[in-house]
Amino acid sequence: MRGADRDRVFGTPGARRAAEVRVAAAELERTGRFGLTRHFIQHGTVSVHAHVMSVALASAHAADVLERLRIKVDRASLIRGALLHDYFLYDWHDPDPSHRLHGFTHPFRALANAEQDFDLTDRERNIIKRHMFPLVPIPPTCREAWIVCLADKACALRETVSARLPRRRGTVGSARA
């Protein structure tokens, strides 16, 4: 479905992206263990589920920009790969020694779990396996994996920093003199 057609069906581009991501996530939850991602914390107080949803939305937004520039993106693989990039299905904060090198090893655990539960495209495999570049030193080899790699870092930074910022009690102008 082309951009203008999607906008007619789903409304604004933001609403369309959110609908695309929700539909893909619901399918992964229906056919695999994706729902378990709700039970694990990723950054700060953000669940793995919330994190991968944010990464998928950010990736879809980047795809929209590229598509306006006439650069093709495999949206289905992009969104599924973004949703599955952290499909490691354990609490990496537990003191279990097997989690000690989580940053280096979780892409491979996520890929193994995703391959166990779903039929993956080569692009989806590349997204999952290479999203931790440069910590894992082999770079992505497709456009979609680069998009998710960058979106993941942007979302992780926002989640980590926002968890450390003081919470505001009211809105601007709500203080009384």
First CA to last CA: what distance? 55 Å
Strand arrangement within the widest β-sheet reads 1-2
> How many H/I helical runs?
7
- What does the average pLDDT come to? 91
Order of helices and strands: HHEEHHHHH
- How much of the polypeptide forms β-strand, as a percent range? under 5%
Structural class: mainly alpha
Shape from CA axes?
globular
Instruction: Work out the radius of gyration.
Output: 17 Å
Sequence stretches where pLDDT stays below 50 over 5 or more residues: 173-177
Describe the structure concisely for a colleague:
It contains 7 helices and 2 strands; from the N terminus they run ααββααααα. The chain is mostly helical and 177 residues long.
Description:
By secondary structure, the chain is mainly α. The chain is 59% helix and 3% strand. It is built from seven helices and two strands, in the order ααββααααα. A two-stranded antiparallel ribbon has the order 1-2. Helix 4 packs across helix 7 (143-164) and helix 5 packs antiparallel against helix 6 (122-130). The relative contact order is 0.14.
